Amino acid sequence: MNRLKTGASCALLLLCLHVGGKAQSVTLALDSVTVKEAMEQLNQTHGYSFVFASGDVDTKKRVSVSVRSQPVGEAVRQILRGQDVAWDIKDKSIVVRKSPPPAPKPNELKGVVRDSEGTPIVGATVQVKGTTKGVMTGTDGSFALADVDANAKLVVSFMGYAKQEVPVNGRVYVAVALSEDAKAIDEVVVVGYGTQSSKLLTTSISKVKMDNIDQGNDSNPVKMLQGRVTGVSISASSGMPGSVPNVIIRGVGSISGNSAPLYVVDGIPSEKYPNINPNDIESMEVLKDASAAAIYGSRANTGVVLITTKSGRSGKTVINVSGRTGLGVIAQDITMANASEYATAMQAAVDNYNVQMRTNLKFYTPPTMENTDWVGLISRDIAYSQNASASISGGGDKTTFYASYGYNNQEGYLLKSSYNQNTLRAKLGHQINDIFKLNLNLAGAFSQQDVLEEESTSLKVLRTAREEQPWYSPYLDDGVSYKANGTMLTRHNPVMLINEEDWTKQKTQLSGVFSVDVTPFKGFKYTPSLSLYGIFDDETKKLSDRHDARKNNDGWSALTQQKDLSTRYVIDNIFSYDVEWDKLTASAMAGHSFEKYEYERFGARSENYANGAYPSSSFDIITAGANIYPGTVSFTGYALESYFGRIALNWDNRYIFNASLRSDGSSRFAKETRYGYFPSASLAWRASNEAFFAPLKSYINDLKLRLSWGQTGSMAGVGNFA
């Protein structure tokens, strides 16, 4: 009997324990409420309260909850759905906390890099000290390293922040907070064959970062410098879409030659305007004074524009896609007189002339006057434009890549004028080992420009339309034949100039740069490189038999074609060395460059197509004409050999000295005068870093005084075989 009672008591105890441990069932139905509101509703209806640290839970997030006679844990799960948290239910309290980091793989170290305010730092370098093992942080500031020794040290760095060494001490998760470095936060500026801190510059260099520019609907990268760089004047050379702007740096630098600056794109120098996708550009630096530009010697008299394109970075693969479309209208055009207004104005002019000259001239007006808007006949109401760009970049510990495609299409204000451009770029970097790194940079641009007559004084389309008398129409009574210049019209018929001429300029630009970075010991780098650059131009102009300039004048051929090919190769060998002694920082650069440029042109034209079959010229075949004539045929070229060097000294970020020297030997000049020398020197004093300046820091955060001198040259206007 006692045994039976004992067994019954145990069974009753087990039953009570089971009932006491069972979670309470709840019912909750909420639709699109905030997490905070859902928590309050659960508290009001069932008495459960939430406990959590501020910032661990997004209480403003909207959720929907549908629980009917289910454990309270299911309600909590739905309320906290999508949040990186864990929770425990203790009596009527629900304790919520951030989820712990996932368990690492064997010997794997994970962590995160943030700034002093807790914001994740993207692209920070995390390297195991004394090894080549390292990674870059992702978009959330996180990183992961495999096979890290428990006693290793991590070296964490990022531009603008103080470098930090962090001991691992056997941990599997490391959180690093970087603080800003007043010395390192300066922006790095490309100075020609190297870089310098912006605060340590001793010359006049302006930098524009493309990421800081709202490009709008402009696809011309150099035009984006307008209004952003002092001393640089940019103006339109033509109203045609795709036309090259006039760029003048600190005034006209040559009396007889071209005033356009030298363009250097990723180390490739060219006097030609760069045909490049603005979305591929990392930054543009403008070397404005002689001391800054002297490093480019005989071609720097009109200034230098350095263009650096984007490169890949280690870390997650990043894909960027952008597109723009726009429309252009004339905000305020010149108001042209109609036939009646024109006749009244001209009659008044003749009357005034007769009074002053005591003559009796009569002003002729046609018996039948029409009203023709000549400008409206040859122009668009709206000119559309489209831009699109796509890029992919990324990489791992040793290899980085960047690839992009760009598209640009513009319509001009005048009919048939347009510009179309496609660009491609691919960059690859590979770290072979601690000493050698390979770099490859390939680019291509393909464009077509449909233009109208603007150079010939008598055939300028827009000028002709504005000067034409408004009481004439463009066609004869048959509605097909054009009224001709000299007999029925004052100027060439502008509608004819638009319809009966096709003028196309096609351009293909290809470039490639292959280089190797050799760093055998700290501070020293040797970079040999080979750069190739080529431009192929194909220009075609076709006049139909209805074009009166072709019918009535000699030399205006039915079909004209001009092909130009220019090539350039550059071989550079550059040595650099940086060293620090206490408060003194010194850097030296020396290099040699050899460049060869060749240009050849071939042109031909044809006319007098057989049996008057003028439409056959639409096949664009020069040999189809009975009469074939040579166009411009030429060949030219030059070579340039250069030696250059630069030294920079910086004492305690207060006293800075830079000096450079370049020697250019050009085949354009005779042997006895072939070489020119271009020295420069510059000084700077950063007064704001002096001790006595400390009380003024609240008013002036940076004060620098500089003095510079330099010599530059120009080969513009000098023949290649002078």
Structure overview:
- The chain is mostly beta strands and 722 residues long.
- Helix content is 12%, strand content 44%.
- The longest helix has 20 residues, at 2-21.
- It is globular and about 115 Å long.
- Residues 1-22 have low confidence and may be disordered.
What topology does this entry show?
Layout: H1 2-21, E1 25-34, H2 35-46, E2 49-51, E3 62-71, H3 72-79, E4 85-90, E5 93-98, E6 108-115, E7 125-128, E8 134-136, E9 142-146, E10 153-157, E11 164-167, E12 173-178, E13 188-190, E14 195-197, E15 205-209, E16 232-235, E17 246-249, E18 262-265, E19 268-270, E20 281-287, H4 290-293, E21 304-309, E22 315-328, H5 339-357, H6 374-378, E23 383-395, E24 399-411, E25 418-431, E26 436-451, H7 461-467, H8 494-499, E27 501-518, E28 524-543, H9 548-552, E29 559-581, E30 584-609, E31 625-630, E32 634-651, E33 655-666, E34 675-686, E35 704-710
Parallel strand pairs: 2-5, 6-12, 18-21
Antiparallel strand pairs: 1-3, 4-5, 6-9, 7-8, 7-10, 10-11, 13-14, 15-20, 16-17, 18-19, 20-21, 22-23, 23-24, 24-25, 25-26, 26-27, 27-28, 28-29, 29-30, 30-31, 30-32, 32-33, 33-34, 34-35
Major sheet characteristics: 14 strands, antiparallel
Radius of gyration: 37 Å
* Helix residue percentage: 10-25%
Look at the structure and give the mean pLDDT. Answer: 84
Tell me the number of strands. 35
Class from helix and strand fractions? mainly beta
Q: Give the amount of beta strand, in percent.
A: 35-45%
User: Could you give the distance between the termini?
Assistant: 130 Å
Stretches where pLDDT falls below 50 for ≥5 residues? 1-22
Which descriptor suits the 3D outline?
globular
Number of helical segments? 9
